[in-house]
Amino acid sequence: PSTCELAGLPVPDHCEGTSLVPLMREPDRPWKSAAFSQYPRAGNVMGYSMRTDRYRFTRWQHRKTGEVVAVELYDHQEDPQENINLAAGSEHKDLVARLAKQLDAGWKAARPG
What we know:
Blueprint: H1 2-7, H2 21-25, E1 35-41, E2 45-51, E3 55-62, E4 68-75, H3 93-105
Antiparallel strand pairs: 1-2, 2-3, 3-4
């Protein structure tokens, strides 16, 4: 979409994505609320990860059953090297729940408005 918009061409219906032109023209504008990725591990485990402006939240799930086998939460403001997993701490229970809900909503919910 970005290339089409920059060239003044219509975006084809089959073209996926969001134009980055508004961000190029106004770099300080609010954009996506999170970036998403996934990473496979041995033993039929898949990691679903989300990076917000401050946190990285990852949920490791069994691929076949969906059972959560581990959760990771890192505060990049306080711990940019990701040395301290905050997910198990009771003081972060509400944050873990909020980030899990955001992860479940997925990348489509994080798109710019």
